[in-house]
Amino acid sequence: RVPIIGDAFGLQLAFNPGAVLGTGSGMTWVLTLIGVAAVAGLFVLAARARTVGWAGGVGLFLGGAVGNLIDRFMSPPGFAIGHVTDFLAYGRLFIGNLADVFLAAGAIAVAVMLMLRQRAHSGTKVAPATPPTFGVPPEDKQ
Hints:
Elements: E1 2-5, E2 9-16, H1 28-48, H2 52-74, E3 84-90, E4 94-96, H3 98-122
Antiparallel strand pairs: 1-2, 2-3, 3-4
């Protein structure tokens, strides 16, 4: 392990036959099929994106999915059953790669876009921020 930010973040090589946190490690070929289906679906979503926000979110997600899928096809132990190469160690929590970072960023962006769309369709408005009361009930402030 090569520390970059103390024990919180560093570099550590690992080969992951599974998905998130090693789940499904005995079914690598199934994960490859799921990855192919996900990439195909994400291409369709990307083609239908009508805003920069949606295109960016789906694009980030697509980039992460393609990155991990390339590992599945090209890495040992063999074609379509390869292990994903992870190298970003987040403390003692888990080890991931740049594709995982893009997947997470894309998921967050898509979640934000879904919330914004829901808010627009429901007609609700965001209340303006109010100054902190610092323990004094609002009715007592002048």
